[in-house]
Amino acid sequence: MRSALRSVWSIFVVHSVVMCATAAIWVHYFGSVATRQRGYSLGNFVSAFAHWDSSWFLLIAKNGYVLSNPNEPAFFPGFPFLMGFGGHALSFVRHFGTIGPVADKTYYAAGILISNVAFLLILMGLYWLGRMKYSERVTLRALWLLALFPSSYYFSSAYSESLFLLFVVFGMLFGYRKQWLLAAISIGLSALTRNLGIFVVASLLWLVWLDFREHKDVGKFIRNGLTVSAIPGFFLSLYLLLLYRVYQNPLMFLWAEKHHWHRKFTWIWTSLHADYRIDPLGFVASVVFLGLLVFAIRKIPLEQWILSAFFIIIPLLSSAGKYSPYPMSMIRFVLIAFPMFFYLGANIKKTETYMVTIATSAIFLVVLTGLFTTGQWVA
Q1: Are 279 and 327 spatial neighbours (Cβ–Cβ below 8 Å)?
Q2: Which of 140, 219, 227 is nearest to 178 (CA)?
Q3: Nearest of 262, 375, 378 to residue 26 by alpha carbon
Q4: Using CA atoms, how far apart are residues 286 and 279, in angstroms rounded to an integer?
Q5: Among candidates 130, 109, 169, 187, which has minimal Cα distance to 8?
Q6: 378 in a structural domain
Q7: Host H or E run for residue 292
Q8: How confident is the model over 285-312, as a mean pLDDT?
Q9: Is the separation of the CB atoms in 341 and 145 below 8 Å?
Q10: What is the total count of domains within the chain?
């Protein structure tokens, strides 16, 4: 553990410094739309990393899911529930053990803290995962590419990206170590955090199949297969039961997506066309990662390719908008397809090419972080 922490600590520190410095400079020189809209009660730093979806997470963290707001179920409970617990814990410490009302700023601060701690653990988990197949050099290259990716500011914001990816990474790590119960629990927690989590079960089932091919134990194969599929399904069913209890509809998250965001099925080319017209960065991210997905066939472990395919393709099969489709913020969705970063790290051979890639990515990260933290851009 110490070896992994030493290896990734500098990556985490650089990422955090870029986030804080960019937010401070942009807010100071350009002001914050969000701060002007919500007043100064949150403070510049917290306000910088708590926009848009963060407001939905705040409502759930404070009040849970309530009948008067049927659109909240679109946001799965893992992150906001932990954010609520963290808000109460921070308030308890801040007021020297006194229990009382928790301010919005404290909830947001808890969400930001959770995301940053989770990101550090992600880097450690990915280091262990990468070293199972790749060299130290390739693994660290992949982690730098992830940490300085243009939309990696979500890892430092009050968003669910960090927590979700943490559960996915450790679920896969436990799967490789054949700790099936821990893998199933971790993926179950990812299914409680975002709707894409349940699809990781397919990757675990493939690992179970590989284990069966090695040991030829039918009973163990059935038992392990049931473990990695039933337990995540059980975790997801807890959320469905909660929705049924509150809204009398276990699929209320689909209702919210359809009626509030007007989300519907679309073909990939329709989503790409919407990205091309409205969100050029999302279009570039979609095309690049779809290309990487094609080139990575048979070049990365199949279970990682399956995971990446679900994370990249499923968002492209839907669009939102009442009258015309608008894009799905793909520069944000591709962020969690971590095997693609390993593939890039392994296939950018020349140091000069790698350094240009990192520098270009970092420049876009600074610009997009500045826009995000001042409330002027969203993905």
Answers
A1: yes
A2: 227
A3: 375
A4: 11
A5: 130
A6: no
A7: helix 280-295
A8: 96
A9: yes
A10: 1
User: Rounded CA gap, 160 and 231, in Å?
Assistant: 21
Burial profile 62-78: b = 16 or more Cβ within 10 angstroms, e = fewer: beebeeeebbbbbbbbb
| Residues 15 and 148: beta-carbon distance below 8 Å | yes
Instruction: Tell me if 141 is assigned to some domain.
Output: yes
Q: What is the pLDDT of residues 71-117, one digit of tens each?
A: 999 999 999 999 999 998 988 877 666 666 778 899 999 999 999 99
Domain that holds residue 77: 2-373
pLDDT tens per residue across span 144-172: 999 999 999 999 999 999 999 999 999 99
Entry pTM: 0.94
Beta-sheet strands, E only, within 311-353 = 318-319
Task: Judge whether 142 and 344 are in contact, CB under 8 Å.
Answer: yes
Segment 211-232, tens digit of pLDDT: 999 999 999 999 999 999 999 9
Q: Which of 31-45, 145-159, 338-352 has the lowest mean pLDDT?
A: 31-45
The packing angle between helices 136-147 and 351-373, to 10°, is 30
Place of tokens 């395919």: 309
